[in-house]
Design a protein that fits this description.
heterodimer, A: mainly beta, six-stranded mixed β-sheet, four-stranded antiparallel β-sheet, B: mainly beta, seven-stranded mixed β-sheet, about 0% helix, globular
């Protein structure tokens, strides 16, 4: 069973608008963490934001915020005030394992920001 | 501060050959992970090294092996290459290997197996 599901293969947004990228996850472990990474065409994965399962508040990092709904097992990324440089692939990932870092990634969403 | 660097950036091999990919972790980082990203997919975890010891492995066959050196740089070796090994190989480092730490990725090595 797929553990991370990103149902939007592609999204379009106009510059300065907000956009939400969807992510649902599946785990039976009460302790887990959710990450969002951005991958521009250069290939490098860039960390955006992290949410731990026990965190009481939704994570925010500058223009990025994570809409964490634990009961629904969703961890949507919200990008406010989109910029042209935000055009990239976006991956949601869940950490698995307790003794080591292992991320399980979704298939990604391609975001295109238009002027 | 130097980020994660990988070499080579591109590589072409034929089926059955062996390949070694290299990664220099970010300064001060003692943990290195390797991921395989097939075209159109998210990265898949291969294994992780912490202070020169493999401490976690994904669902990859033994022909995928690695090393981490005392300076915390790392190698990924793949023997008996198959066509399906064609992918972007990403290396990532982190300061201490804590499970909630963010990973710092390199730009990857694009491997093509013909």
């Amino acid at each position: 069973a797929q553990k991370i599901t990103q149902t939007q293969p592609g999204m379009f947004v106009q510059e300065k608008e907000a956009v939400t990228l969807d992510c649902t996850y599946d785990t039976s472990d009460p302790s887990y963490g959710l990450f969002w990474y951005k991958q521009p065409s250069s290939g490098e994965m860039i960390f955006l934001i992290y949410q731990g399962s026990y965190d009481q508040q939704n994570a925010t990092e500058g223009r990025y915020s994570l809409n964490f709904q634990k009961a629904r097992k969703s961890a949507n990324l919200v990008i406010s005030a989109s910029q042209l440089g935000d055009s990239a692939m976006y991956f949601c990932a869940m950490r698995e394992g307790r003794g080591f870092q292992k991320l399980v990634f979704g298939t990604g969403t391609r975001l295109l920001v238009s002027p | 501060e130097t980020g994660v660097t990988q070499s080579p950036t591109h590589l072409i091999k034929t089926r059955g050959q062996q390949v070694t990919l290299r990664c220099s972790s970010q300064s001060g980082h003692n943990t290195v992970s390797w991921y395989q990203q097939a075209l159109g997919q998210g990265p898949q975890f291969i294994f992780q090294y912490y202070r020169e010891e493999e401490n976690g492995r994904g669902n990859f066959p033994p022909r995928f092996s690695g090393l981490q050196f005392p300076n915390y740089s790392s190698e990924l070796n793949v023997n008996a290459l198959e066509l399906d090994d064609s992918a972007l190989y990403l290396c990532a480092s982190s300061p201490s290997g804590r499970v909630d730490e963010k990973l710092f990725f390199g730009s990857g090595t694009q491997l093509s197996v013909l």
